[in-house]
Design brief:
- There is one protein chain.
- A hairpin with a 4-residue loop joins strand 1 and strand 2.
- The model has no long low-confidence stretch (mean pLDDT about 75).
- The strands form two sheets. The chain has a two-stranded antiparallel ribbon with strand order 1-2. It has a two-stranded antiparallel ribbon with strand order 3-4.
- It is an alpha+beta fold.
- It has a domain of about 70 residues.
Length: about 180
């Protein structure tokens, strides 16, 4: 009987050590969930696992935006009096979606304005500048000579007329520029 108790105690001890070893290896081994990502031609994922946890970054349509860069350079020799040359260069960078459609500015800049709004602001500034220049020229050529002959204040009235022409030209240029640039 002594022998049976002895072998039973040895067997229970070995089993106990085995169970403890299994539990220790199970606890020290990190457990990750099984995630099946859908795989496609343009999908990508990145997994970063540490002791503290894990982070998964998945993109179902990567790259979302494709870029195209074109450069056109043209140099033309002039055979003139001074023999100079003409250089014309153009650089264009476009973004496309996967379907092939050109990206027309769906994103926003640092101030929260879309590319279309920024383009409209730039077009408006140019149109105002051109309108102001045209209004000043018309007022200085047509109105100022008529009012400069007013005694004592003619010189002042000519300045006012020129400034009024500048303001009206700027406002008119803004309206015309908005209509032509679809803003």
């Amino acid at each position: 009987m002594n022998r049976i108790i002895k072998w039973t105690a040895i067997g229970v001890g070995i089993a106990h050590i085995g169970v403890l070893g299994h539990l220790i290896s199970y606890i020290s081994r990190p457990q990750y969930p099984a995630i099946n990502f859908p795989k496609g031609e343009y999908s990508s994922y990145q997994i970063e696992a540490t002791k503290d946890g894990y982070r998964i970054q998945y993109r179902a349509n990567d790259p979302r935006v494709l870029e195209s860069e074109k450069s056109l350079q043209h140099a033309k020799d002039k055979r003139g009096l001074f023999g100079g040359s003409e250089y014309r260069g153009e650089y264009r960078r476009d973004q496309y979606t996967m379907d092939g459609a050109r990206n027309l500015g769906g994103g926003v800049d640092a101030e929260g304005k879309s590319a279309k709004e920024v383009e409209c602001l730039i077009a408006d500034a140019g149109a105002r500048s051109q309108g102001a220049m045209a209004g000043t020229s018309i007022a200085a050529g047509a109105i100022a000579p008529a009012v400069v002959g007013i005694p004592y204040i003619g010189w002042l009235a000519a300045g006012w007329a020129t400034l009024l022409g500048q303001r009206v030209g700027s406002d008119l240029g803004s309206k015309v520029g908005s209509a032509f640039n679809d803003c």
